[in-house]
Amino acid sequence: MDPLECSRQLADRAVRTPRKFGQAPYRALQLTAAEPGETPYDVVYEEPPVRLRRYDPERATDATPVVIAYAFINDPSILDFAPERSVVGRFLERGIPVYVVDWGDPSPIDRSLGLADYVTRFLANCVDAAREREGTESVHLLGYSTSVPLVVAYAALFPDRIRTLVLQGPRVDFRAGDDLELFRTLAAGHDHEQVASVFDAVPTPLLEVGLASRKPVEYTVTAPLRLWDRLDDPEFVAGQGRKLEWALGGPDVPARLYREFVGDLLLENRLIENELELGGRRVDLSAIDAPALLVLGEDDKFVPREASVPILEEIGSDEAEIVELPTGHVGLSVSAVAHERGWPRIADWLAKRG
């Protein structure tokens, strides 16, 4: 950095520090009070612990609905982060009805729910509810992060119900990339079978610790310093508050689902190897023939590109595209660049196909 620029930034920080100390109590209140999720919705289907939200488009159309299966370890409210940064809103603007699968918080009696339940029961019933309500034979199906394997498995088992397949921040190859090696080692070393035997529902904080361990400096140093540096920016503080509320509001995971996700997918990589079986049926990726779109973050530290693109070599679709945006994993949903350059394009891509 140029010495003059460095001096200017140091002087600027020195001037702003007393003001930030004075604002700290108010900003702390703003940080804890901010919440994502402002667009109204109706719950149109419920099968505990799962609920299906429906969002009305801004204008009546006969568009095929989009069903979004958000990550099952996080709350889906980040899809409606703020009015100007709402994934839900981008689709509604195009007249596309939006359904969001809210996986909910499992109770102790749900400990036996596994991958097959989440794919062939809950996700299948949510898709059917959307199809019936909208009067369509198929839906646009969008999976994000940890729910991508569930969505891919569903699309392979029920290909006739899928108009298009959109995979956001998708990790499908759990052996690709060095970024997951620490998490994989922790999972193997801590015996997922034992974890599943101890908890009826594995607490979200336990999962978050595992994720944070992959970026310890980011979680413990960089992020807090970034917040302090911009403490006198109310818009930035409100955004951080929404992220904090989202991060702390994730549901727990049924013991069996945790065991199967870690064992069958994370450690044994059965999905991309075409070896996964759900309910006695093999998940054959070549059965997926719908147009597919991968939405990737160039700066995604959780899901590298090489962990996503192998899915395009395995599915049977002859129409596949990749949208790469200069942002990270969470930024795919909430960053300005994603909503300026990404989601309008993705919404148009869906609209052109139904």
Walk me through what this model shows.
This protein has helices at 3-33, 87-93, 115-134, 148-157, 181-189, 192-198, 204-212, 216-229, 234-248, 255-267, 310-314, 331-334, 336-351, and strands at 42-47, 50-55, 66-69, 80-82, 85-86, 98-102, 139-144, 162-168, 201-202, 253-254, 277-278, 281-282, 292-297, 320-325. The chain has 354 residues and is α/β, with parallel strands linked by helices. It has one domain (3-351): Rossmann fold. The strands form 4 sheets. An 8-stranded mixed sheet has the order 1-2-6-3-7-8-13-14, with helices on both faces. The protein has a two-stranded antiparallel ribbon with strand order 4-5. A two-stranded antiparallel ribbon has the order 9-10. α4 links the parallel β7 and β8 (162-168). α1 (3-33) crosses α9 (234-248), α3 packs across α4 (148-157) and α6 (192-198) runs antiparallel to α10 (255-267). It is globular and about 50 Å long.
Residue-averaged pLDDT: 80
Low-confidence stretches: 5-35, 210-225
CATH domain class name: Alpha Beta
Find the structural class using helix and strand composition. Answer: alpha/beta
Architecture in CATH? Answer: 3-Layer(aba) Sandwich
Q: What is the total number of structural domains?
A: 1
Biggest pleated sheet: 8 strands, mixed
Percent helix range: 40-55%
Rg from Cα: 21 Å
Strand content: 15-25%
Cα(first) to Cα(last) distance is 51 Å
CATH topology: Rossmann fold
Shape: globular
Write the layout of secondary structure elements.
Elements: H1 3-33, E1 42-47, E2 50-55, E3 66-69, E4 80-82, E5 85-86, H2 87-93, E6 98-102, H3 115-134, E7 139-144, H4 148-157, E8 162-168, H5 181-189, H6 192-198, E9 201-202, H7 204-212, H8 216-229, H9 234-248, E10 253-254, H10 255-267, E11 277-278, E12 281-282, E13 292-297, H11 310-314, E14 320-325, H12 331-334, H13 336-351
Parallel strand pairs: 3-6, 3-7, 7-8, 8-13, 13-14
Antiparallel strand pairs: 1-2, 2-6, 4-5, 9-10, 11-12
Helix pairs in contact: 1-9, 3-4, 6-10
